[in-house]
Amino acid sequence: MRAGQQTTDIGSVLTFPHGVHPPEYKELSCTRPIERVPFVDEYTLPLGQHIGAPSRPVVRVGQVVRRGELIAEPVGFVSVGLHSPVDGTVTAIELVDHQNGQLVEGIRIRTDRFSPQVFPPREAINPSTLTRDELIRGIQMAGIVGMGGAAFPAHVKFSLKPDQSVRILMLNGCECEPFLTCDHRVMLEQAEALLDGTMILAGFLHPERIAIAVEANKADAIKVLRQEVARQGIPVEVIPLEVKYPQGAEKMMISAILGEEVPSGKLPIDVGAMVSNVGTAVAISEYFRTGKPLMERVVTVSGTALARPTNVLVPIGTPMQAVVDFCGGITHPEPRILLGGPMMGMVQKNLDVPVMKGTSGILVLTDREVVDPVTYSCIRCGRCVDACPIFLNPARLGLLARKGLWLEMEEQHVMDCFECGSCSFICPSAIPLVQSFRVAKGLLREKKIREQTNQ
Amino acid sequence: MMQEYIIGLSILVGLGLFFAVILAVASVKLKVFEDPRIDAVEDMLPHANCGACGQPGCRAFAELVIKGEVKPGKCTVSSPEAIEQIAGFLGIDAGAEERIIARLRCAGGKAEAHHLAEYHGTLSTCRGEAVVNGGPKACSWGCLGLGDCMDVCEFDAIHMNEDGLPVVTPDRCVACGDCVEICPKGLFELIPESQHLYVQCKSELEGDLALNRCSVACTACGKCVADASPGLVEIDHHVARVKTDLRHLEAREAIRRCPTNAIVWLEGPQFASPSRNRPAFGQIEPIRMEEDLENHYWQ
Q: What is the largest CA-CA distance in chain B?
């Protein structure tokens, strides 16, 4: 189903059915160029920064490490390497605070204050001389994960089964979450590296079409990318999409561009689509051209309670406190701190946790944006049904969740919910819909694990 | 007019008689013999269908008891008298089962645990709190204190105390395991009631790092290991654990030197007032970091 085509000065705009229009707040930081955060004294690197098995340390306490050196190796296929963001000394391998509120194994590195912190340049590898397996292995060892937020290891996504083929390679520059502007700045400032990374991917995925999808509110990025594509003369389409949440979810992008729906429980590759974040493509280009592994990333630091909202290039492992201080500090006595966007991001209780590979934004909000809502009864208005991008019935699921009928929720496909939060956003009675679906999904997953271990 | 009534009535009566004959024949021909003792035993069981015995319900349990595959004592909900009655009725041994109850592996309530934030969510359950950054406590293993276990307990055995911790009433607990499943932090354990020595902490942090987050955390100092009989207490992942199968060796001596009262001697419910002489969080001096100590030294 292809809904809502309209024409603007950047061409026709595609979109998916349903969705919501949250206020954008992007003007706070979208004009700020990417700045580098100065090096701090200590870096904390949790070993499980990605989805999958945590990496295994390959350094000892007291060992001197160089910038970009491998400090933890992947364990198994769904796992990636981890690299030191600075020249320094490993001070501890212990339990450290993770962004999800748990304490996990991590490596602490104390920065060498006298080091120039230069990444030693390495001879570029020509990706076209490598086999597909060597490229996949390279992406894994470089520690590259999906930079959109979920931090799924990129090489797992790119390794195709023999019967799979890529019809379309899509680069995701939608950035539909309010406040976030890091992908916007990456597309403006690193368009060349972005297209280079795209062509490296295209070189071994052999897609029929290559597209970069950008929401129409980033008209300047669309123009820059189109100019760069024309200059290099490569077969890449830049497709403007309607400004709507959750346009950047991969299944919604496929629905908008291909007009096809990814079936329940299937992956985008099952309909021949490969979706990757623009930041991931830049990281791949940097790794093959300069040998630089994923050890720093662009983060939007924004919010109404922040003195100087901006976009920053942060070494992985920098404490959030240092990043917030660099951006002028917090101006509100009771800030609400979020990692990622306001719709799907994680609330934080602790500014000591480090920036990780999946951190796309640090938002410091006030009680004006984050209100403590009062929940009323469901008035059956059906707005959540009209908002849900995957056509679930959140009102019914919410009712079942209140009664604790988890198995009935599974029958109503709660496991397909990807927790975009459109239902909770639109609900006039402030019913905690997506929150209870997350609880239900957790309970159902635990139940499945229990059943498997009992057998 | 009258005739139509009679025709209708006689058709219905005829149909009724026809099916009655079929049912009468079927009840004789297709009769399944069922032991009448199953009904009798089921009546003597508590009808809780809790699943604590490992069976899907009380009737399935009754069937197994009559087959002799399990002992009546396996039912943890029945009173000893009721079990004796079943055993007497069937003329079998009641089977002495060790009484199992649920214990909470955390003692860090509102006063003891360090809170980094306040939870304002509209979903006021532990499960809802746990998906938001693991809850507001600095210790990621600690009890969240919103009482999901109390709500799920069908036997009214769990109550929240004023410190925000669930207290299990041992006499009411039947070890059905519902609280074990619902707790998002996995803090409940089913252990024999006869085990008195118990470590009320799950924090895998060591020493000062644990103490900086909760005043009753196990710091893995190893004093209880040294004071207890060999092998009874061991430290696993920086937290002391009492070995249940060696509980005949336990003695109060093991808790005497514990600096945080993480290991306790339990008789009856947990967190009972006499054993609570623990310091609240903040009463302990915050532990200085390495650099502060250096500065302190040079001054």
A: 119
Q: Tell me the range of A330-334, B91-95, B291-295 where mean pLDDT is highest.
A: A330-334
Q: Could you read off the pLDDT of A168-184 as tens digits, one per residue?
A: 999 999 999 999 999 99
Distance from CA of B62 to the nearest CA of A (A): 23
- The CATH number that domain B100-275 falls under is 3.30.70.20
What token pair was written down for B211? Answer: 């103490």
Neighbours of A201 (CB within 10 A): 25
**B185–chain A nearest CA distance, Å:** 11
The A residues from 375 to 404 touching B (CB cutoff 8 Å) are 375
Which chain A residues have a beta carbon less than 8 Å from that of B202?
Answer: none
Q: What superfamily in CATH does domain B36-90 come from?
A: Electron transport complex subunit B, putative Fe-S cluster (1.10.15.40)
Q: Which residues of A touch B204 (CB under 8 A)?
A: 95, 103
How distant is the Cα of B32 from the closest Cα of chain A, in angstroms?
32
Q: In whole angstroms, give the CA distance from residue A84 to residue A92.
A: 13
Whole-angstrom distance, CA of residue A443 vs CA of residue A432: 17
Measured between alpha carbons, how far is B173 from B102 in angstroms, rounded to an integer?
Answer: 7
Q: Which of A351-360, A367-376, A380-389, B181-190 has the lowest mean pLDDT?
A: A367-376
Of the residues A439, A445, A447, A454, the best mutation for testing chain B's interface (the one with the most B CB atoms within 10 Å of its CB) is A439
Provide the ipTM. 0.83
Q: What pTM does this model have?
A: 0.83
